[in-house]
Write a structure and sequence with these properties.
Pfam family, one: bMERB_dom
Number of domains: 1
Shape: elongated
Subcellular location: Membrane
Structural class: mainly alpha
GO molecular function, one term: monooxygenase activity
Number of strands: 0
Distance between the termini: 51 Å
Number of helices: 3
Strand content: under 5%
Largest sheet: none
InterPro entries: bMERB_dom, F-actin_Monoox_Mical
Protein name: MICA1 monooxygenase
Length: 154
Amino acid sequence: YPTWKRTLTRRAREAQMKRFCKAQAIQRRLEEIEVTFRELEQKGIKLEKLLRDEEGSPAAQKTQWMNKLLYLVQKKNSLMSEESDLMIAVQELKLEEQQWQLDQKLRCYMNREESLKTPEDRAAEQKILVQLLEVVNKRNVLIHIQEEKRLSEL
């Protein structure tokens, strides 16, 4: 194995591990968001019951409960936005992995001597190239969606 092949293999493994670790971190955060959603939902239910049941409560108390309820809704919306961003990141990681795999297959075909390639090899190479372009276009769409979301939040 020449040095450059070992280097490429090592870098590919490192990139794959980095994607794996990022996917795990995203999964953990999604689980945390789910737990927080449930907690916010329970708090919201309690506040709604207080607002409906306590007709003799002072106006200041009702205002305080209403403000807490609005804060919970705002927090929930913020978490939903974060969850949406994480789901896009998951899709991006999947496409990144798919692109890497297709790139590896394409390199195998491209490294063969042109005179030794069969028509089936050329067709497979073209098919992989088309798939690779589709993946790149999907990643581009995700980036465009993220950019639109970022601009709309500003």
